[in-house]
């Protein structure tokens, strides 16, 4: 099956710093989503981004489908950004289930 | 509008008992998915319903796991004869036309 790798596995930042999280995938995908899992375990949608670039406030994401990777940028980080960030992909067709990476644990220090 | 809801929030059961977990998807969403999140396995797919089509059960770990979706809306995931390795957070998601998946808060299952 498809492999999804995220890096770095852990990231510690000082409040106000910027960061880049990476997601590599091993095959062509139909869909790619980025999620933030908050301390209560809720998965919050950040981006639906099979290709191109999107921005939402301090967050932006870029997916280069031909090179099989996606990047999530967090600017001016805040303590509330702490948590685990997951990327997940689906293959399309009849295979719409998401395959998740192992996540990046982000800790933003005050 | 209302998001995906799941019940119960937490469930503690004894090994060998059966449990039922419920998911109410976002109104109008045609696709419904079950996943589970455990420490050793990360987030993994279990089963997928799309409209009236036969469900994709390829992620179910054993025949003790089953799920149904009644009337194209509410879904129930049943685990029979629970084992300690079934302890995990069970997450439900729904989507409209197989696009962005929206997740519920999960059910935390602990098998003693």
Can you offer a commentary on this structure?
The complex is a heterodimer of chains A (110) and B (112). By secondary structure, chain A is mainly beta. Helices cover 0% and strands 56% of the residues of chain A. Chain A has one domain (4-109): Sandwich (Immunoglobulin-like), CATH 2.60.40.10. Chain A has strands at residues 4-7, 10-14, 19-25, 31-37, 43-48, 52-56, 59-64, 69-74, 83-90, 99-100, 104-109. Chain A is globular. In chain B, the strands form 2 sheets. In chain B, strands 2, 4, 5, 8, 9 and 10 form a 6-stranded mixed beta sheet that branches. A 4-stranded antiparallel beta sheet of chain B has the order 1-3-7-6, with no helix packed on it. Chain B has a single domain (5-105), classed as Immunoglobulins (Immunoglobulin-like). Helix content of chain B is 0%, strand content 49%. Chain B has 112 residues and is mainly beta. At the A-B interface, strand 4, strand 5 and strand 10 of A face strand 4, strand 5, strand 8 and strand 9 of B.
Features:
heterodimer, A: 110 residues, mainly beta, Immunoglobulin-like, five-stranded antiparallel beta sheet, 11 strands, 0% helix, globular, B: 112 residues, six-stranded mixed beta sheet, four-stranded antiparallel beta sheet, 10 strands, 49% strand
Quote the average pLDDT of chain B.
Answer: 93
Specify the overall morphology of chain A: globular
Listing every helix as H and every strand as E from the N terminus to the C terminus, the arrangement of chain B reads EEEEEEEEEE
* CATH architecture designation of chain A: Sandwich
Distance between the termini of chain A: 40 Å
Biggest pleated-sheet summary of chain B: 6 strands, mixed
Largest interface: A-B, 20 and 25 residues
Oligomer: heterodimer
Mean pLDDT of chain A: 94
The total beta strand count of chain A reads: 11
| Second-tier CATH architecture of chain B | Sandwich
Helical amount of chain A: under 10%
What series of H and E elements makes up the topology of chain A? EEEEEEEEEEE
